Inverse folding.
């Protein structure tokens, strides 16, 4: 009797193992499906992260552009008023050849029919600028035999009142 | 070995020999069941359990 019980017990154990294996396989299939789902979600998340990073970059670029435009607009305003403050002081008989304007520095090259006009222009500019470098006027003759004086002014340190007025 | 009268031979065999033979046969059958059926199943179960 005992051998039969042992054999039957062993066979039961065999069937029990079969059931356990089936349940584990079912669980494994479910886990694989869940893993695939999570992978898909992870891929989507990564794509969204990339898109967000790209958008952030574009936002930064746009902000930089806006700042640049603002800076240019501001500097244009101040440069325009600076140019006006120089042009309005030009006496008759004096004309400018070139004007280089930056935020803190202005270089004017021009010509005048009389040297007194250069002095007059210098005087007018000295109200607006503290430092004016003037290296003298050079006498020149045009092809039409007209005598004129070429000069260069380097202006620095605009007076505060004038800056505010601008 | 005389196989003509097995029943008679079995009845005449001493009890300890019968028991020994039964034990040996049972052990053999159990071993065969274990090797052929249970061992591969158990290995499969173990592998799956580790995976899950």
């Amino acid at each position: 009797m005992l051998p039969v019980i042992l054999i039957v017990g062993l066979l039961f154990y065999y069937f029990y193992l079969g059931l356990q294996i089936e349940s584990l396989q079912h669980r494994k299939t479910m886990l694989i499906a869940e893993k695939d789902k999570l992978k898909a979600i992870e891929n989507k998340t990564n794509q969204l992260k990339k898109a967000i990073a790209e958008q952030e970059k574009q936002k930064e670029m746009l902000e930089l552009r806006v700042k640049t435009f603002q800076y240019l607009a501001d500097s244009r305003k101040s440069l325009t008023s600076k140019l006006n403050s120089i042009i309005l002081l030009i006496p008759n008989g004096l004309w400018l050849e070139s004007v280089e304007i930056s935020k803190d520095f202005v270089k004017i090259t021009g010509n005048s029919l009389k040297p007194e006009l250069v002095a007059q222009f210098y005087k007018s500019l000295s109200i607006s600028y503290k430092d004016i470098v003037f290296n003298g006027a050079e006498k020149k003759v045009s092809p039409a035999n007209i005598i004129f004086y070429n000069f260069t002014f380097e202006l620095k340190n605009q007076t505060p009142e004038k800056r505010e007025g601008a | 070995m005389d196989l003509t009268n097995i029943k008679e031979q079995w009845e005449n065999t001493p009890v300890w020999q019968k028991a020994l033979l039964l034990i040996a046969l049972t052990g053999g059958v159990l071993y065969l069941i274990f090797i052929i059926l249970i061992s591969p199943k158990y290995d499969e179960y173990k592998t799956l359990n580790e995976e899950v």
About this structure: The interface with chain B takes residues 2-3, 6-7, 10-11, 13-14, 17-18, 20-21, 24-25, 27-28, 31 of chain A (CB under 8 Å). The CA atoms of residues 15 and 109 of chain A lie 107 Å apart.
